[in-house]
Amino acid sequence: MSGLRERLGRLRQETSEAVIADLSVNSLPAASVAETAIPAERERDSSIEQESRLPSGFRQIGVERMSNESGQFLLRRIEYDLPYRHGHYDLEELIACASHLHPVAMRQNRESEAIDPYRLLFLDTETTGLGVGTGNVPFMIGFGYYSGNRFIVEQTLIRHPGEERAMLTYLLGHMKDKSHLVTYNGRTFDWPVLVNRFILNGWRRSGPEPGHLDFLHPARALWRNTLPSCRLSMIEEARLGIHREHDVPGSLAPSLYFQYLSDGNPVHLHGVYAHNEKDILTLASLSVHFGLLLSGNVQPDDIEATEGEELFRTACWLEQHGLTEASERMFSLLPDMKGIDDGGWGLALAARYKRAGRHELALPIWRKSAAKAEASALPKLEAHIELAMYYEHREKQLPTALSYAEKALELTQRRSRLISSAAKRKEEKDGLQHRVARLREKVSRERK
Q1: What share of the chain in percent tops pLDDT 70?
Q2: Percent of the chain at pLDDT exceeding 90
Q3: pTM of the predicted model, to two decimals?
Q4: pLDDT per residue over 336-348, tens digit each?
Q5: Last residue of one domain, picked from the residues 52, 68, 90
Q6: Is the same domain home to 404 and 440?
Q7: What spans are recorded as compositionally biased (Basic and acidic residues) (predicted)?
């Protein structure tokens, strides 16, 4: 037993000496550690010079090393002299029409300052993942802003997690005098990701958050049913006249960043830089598009709508934002547009005509929609019900009203696959049965 105690004692002593030695080295000033690791002065100077020089893959696209009180990060800055056209729009146009975006800001923020183009920060991040959790790191933050007669794009990049705080510090410096972040899905993705990173780097929320101008929501309001998708790349090509060549999809950005981390070759990131830069320019171009729409000066012919639905959605969007005169100009063109019975927008337009007392405009839509429903495997009943009500209450043509009600009741058999709730199916069927019974009784009394 005594021998075991002696061996344990020697082991504790050796371990303590090793720990003390390790602490003494790690607690030395940086210069002392460097001298211990590289005793030769010439080798140390060569190492420092090599460290201070960025790889040519960064330098050839204008990336520089930046330092602030929080450390180092990489920065690329591009200046565009105004006027500068990106697609259909000149970015200089936003200076005149930005104030018209105030209704959008009010809907998204409940209250909002007036929109000053020089206080907007156009923001787009490239992250290591898709979620908004703490594990998703924005390795590149791109932002744009107006300064004098220029539009400036800046792109920050971190080479390792130790540079994140410096990058975020730089971003906060640019946010101080800005009133709104202009993004595309930024309210639910980019900004929450950044908030998480601020918190993890020691910042705490204080004061109001920046206002938001997130154009994903207006884009969906106008184009969700008329374009294959509402991805920014689809919007810019189909509606903004922007065509990218050899573009790196944003979905590939994380893997390209990890490839750079693996072998240190910045060329992997060239496409990511270009993609992020174009996204920021497109945000400014999209802002011009919606600013001009809300100015009320855009004519229906200026809208690239090949079918009536887009014109209808645009008119509704303008009406929601208080531009009644501009929306009425577009609504007035819809009766002559093709495809008016397609989808749900035709019935929505007919309902609007009905509320305005313009039944003569609603009738053709209801009839077309009813004919389409009767030929469909999954029919809608709204048109038949509207026609039944119209002929019963306005035209007093009870047999015609009964015919439409009976047809609607017949179509409920096909609709059973549309309604998962048995209670809702029963409610719909019972309502139509009651309507048919009442109309049959009225027709019977009329014939006596």
Answers
A1: 84
A2: 63
A3: 0.80
A4: 776 676 557 889 8
A5: 52
A6: yes
A7: 424-448
Q: Are residues 395 and 441 in the same domain?
A: yes
Host domain of residue 421: 357-447
Q: Residue 302 is encoded by which pair of tokens?
A: 């200026």
| 371 and 289 inside one domain | no
Residue 430 lies in a domain: yes
pLDDT tens digits for range 197-241? 999 998 887 767 889 999 999 999 999 988 999 999 999 999 999
Residue 437 lies in a domain: yes
Give the CATH number of the domain where residue 100 resides: 3.30.420.10
**How much is the average pLDDT of 170-179?**
95
Q: Give the pLDDT band of residue 305 (cuts 50, 70, 90).
A: low
d(CA 438, CA 84): 67
Residue 308 lies inside a defined structural domain of this protein: no
